[in-house]
Specification:
The chain has one helix spanning 138-144; strands spanning 2-4, 10-11, 18-24, 30-31, 43-47, 51-60, 80-87, 91-97, 110-120, 126-134. With 150 residues, it is mainly β. The protein has one domain (2-6, 49-149). The strands form 2 sheets. It has a 5-stranded mixed β-barrel with strand order 6-7-8-10-9. Strands 2, 3, 4 and 5 form a 4-stranded antiparallel beta sheet that branches. This is OB-fold domain-containing protein. It holds the Pfam family OB_ChsH2_C. Residues 46-115 form the ChsH2 C-terminal OB-fold domain.
């Protein structure tokens, strides 16, 4: 079983994941993530588009410093992408990018929302966060993460 890193961040898992934004009841403006706490009452929860385009990115080639709390250490750290994905007519969202070949990433490339387990709790539960993957890899990524639930 898996747990989400935070409430009201996303629904679903794998290729069925949807990011949750807040739409201001006063201005209609979308914000991500959806506001929590006292401000939450001023927003309606909105599911964002599943697909967008890669707006900008970089490759994280070393383990981030604290407060990063992902699994592993500097020896077994696996590089990953970090980027901005434009969800058409909605927002530009920052997130991890998971891809079979990080070197094949290109600005303007179709991307899809997904989830990934980035750490494990002391009880052995996978902690899921949202991520983006190339749209043509979404099905393969979903199969690799079967059994992850949010």
């Amino acid at each position: 079983m898996a747990i989400a890193v935070a409430e009201n961040l996303f629904r679903g898992s794998g290729a069925d994941a949807r990011l949750l934004a807040g739409r201001s009841r006063q201005s209609g403006k979308l914000v991500f993530p959806c506001p929590q706490g006292a401000d939450a009452d001023d927003y309606d929860v909105v599911e964002l588009a599943r697909e967008g385009t890669l707006w900008s990115y970089t490759i994280q080639r070393f383990k981030p410093k604290t407060p990063f709390n992902g699994d592993g250490d500097e020896v077994n750290f696996k590089p990953y992408g970090v980027g901005y994905v434009e969800l058409p007519g909605q927002l530009i969202v920052e997130g991890h990018i998971v891809a079979n070949d990080l070197g094949a990433l290109r600005i303007g490339q179709p991307m899809r929302v997904t989830t990934e387990a980035y750490r494990t709790t002391d009880a052995g539960e996978a902690v899921l966060t949202y991520a983006f993957c190339p749209a043509d890899e979404a099905h393969r990524h979903e199969q690799a993460n079967e059994g992850d639930n949010s």
